[in-house]
Design a protein that fits this description.
mainly alpha
Length: 82
């Protein structure tokens, strides 16, 4: 999104992803998506502000090649459960 006006564009999309990660005991992939001015994830993300760095490192260290991409139905189910 570099160089684009993206404020508010990704919030709902990221919500689907973060809840899927939470429900499937995966590192919160959304920890690496940060606001330009803040340098931290969005305020609505279920992420302890004191653990942002630790969660980001878990994302980087995780073997994502072992994760089969979820279907849109799986993403929606995770989102709807929260």
């Amino acid at each position: 999104m570099y160089g684009k006006d993206a404020a508010g564009v990704l919030d709902q999309i990221l919500g689907y992803i973060v809840w899927y990660c939470c429900d499937n005991k995966l590192p919160r992939l959304t920890a690496i998506v940060v606001g330009k001015g803040r340098g931290t994830p969005g305020l609505g993300m279920p992420l302890d502000p004191n653990r942002v760095d630790a969660e980001r490192e878990k994302v980087y260290q995780y073997d994502w090649y072992d994760v089969y991409p979820p279907t849109k139905e799986e993403l929606k189910a995770a989102f709807d459960n929260h």
